[in-house]
Amino acid sequence: MNSRVLGGFWVLLVVGATIAGLQAISPENPLIIPALIVMWVITIISLLPFPLKKAVGAPIRWLREHPILYWFLILFYICLSLGYWVSQYQPTNGRALKPVEFFYLLAISWFLIYLLAYDADAPQLRAMGAKLGQSRLSGVLVMLTTIVFIFIAAETWMRIYYITTDGYGFTAMNYWWYQNFGLGHNNSLGYRDYEPKPDAPGLIRVAVVGDSFAMGHGVNNIDDTFPQIMERELGDGYDVNLVAQSGWDSDVERDRLDSYPLRPNIVVLSYYLNDIDYLLQTPELSPDAIFDFPQDPTLYWFVLNFFVPNYVYYNVAQFTSPLKRENFTNRLIDAHMDDNLWNQQVDKLNQFVDWTVDHDTRLIILLWPQIAAVADSAPAVQRVKDFFESRDVQVVNMSDVLLDKNPYDMIVNRFDSHPGVPAHHLAAEQLYAAIIEESP
What we know:
Blueprint: H1 4-24, H2 32-46, H3 50-64, H4 67-89, H5 99-117, H6 122-134, H7 137-161, H8 172-182, E1 204-210, H9 212-215, H10 226-234, E2 238-244, H11 253-259, E3 266-271, H12 297-305, H13 307-319, H14 322-337, H15 339-358, E4 362-367, H16 374-390, E5 394-397, H17 398-402, H18 407-410, E6 411-413, E7 416-419, H19 421-437
Parallel strand pairs: 1-2, 1-3, 3-4, 4-5
Antiparallel strand pairs: 6-7
Helix pairs in contact: 1-2, 1-5, 2-5, 4-5, 4-7, 10-19, 12-13, 14-16
């Protein structure tokens, strides 16, 4: 390195890579030691007498004599090295980098500086500039470089600031939200909840049973979900326990409650219209069947592993389609209005109600509409409400609370109509009132 500052930074990179690499050595990372040996040999040679230093820099000097090729190879190296890191390790906000990732990033940065600056001098750089100025391919490379760096900037921004859910669980952002936030607060029982309080005289235990609405799909802070808000409002005499996981439907909820090791005094069943999904398995009925998925293996890999194409393909091309969103809602509503399907659903709901009767447990239904289409959901919501009330079960109908609200203020984001933080607070207030009004 002709610059002492850059040379010193180069040496610091290999030192940092060594520290990180020694922490990451394992059978799964067999190339760390060979890579460190190569890095140290070249770094030490760069500090040695002139002839050996020139020999190590010969490949780079040759490339600089062919600046178009040199530029393209550097661009290709940046894309390949960063692309491998992203696809292999999926760095995202909410997850700390592993030592092997620190090693990898320091190593690729060390090699990039080698490509850009090793044995470079002013005459050589001026000659490169002159050749680039005369080449018609320079404009193409400028455009390609601009596209690459815009993509890198967008991918970086999304991985830091856009770890969020979609309404249907399709996107990479949704997957990593669950890894970093959704599953990151599971208790010993496997639920997104704090550990239950031990049994004590006078303690009233409330079990919240449900699916993604109950576990707080899209709400980063567990304390902003309605079970946690409700527990704080109820006070020390209550313990609110979550018995809910994303994707549960009415065919499994009673069994999950039955296998829960603690017996509740009160059960809150969070019911959303997609709780009937288990009956909608054919393409003609399934709400998810209206969305398209990439069939080409290369496109599928690219969309799966990188946030920018994932966002464009799913969020822009799929979820922003008004027709697809409307069809999704309509299929759920139609399923509840279909007598054959509804009678099968009633059988499962009756089993749930019977369980609470047999265990002398008070049951409250938290009934959710499609928040982005409250009025359209009314027929299906009313049918569910009428059933539970016919069984003398108390129903908290969130349609009454949400009807006059701006739906975009109540949902997680424009691609996800799960309840956002304000809706969770409203649900907690309604449940608090429902519990307290009949408490001794």
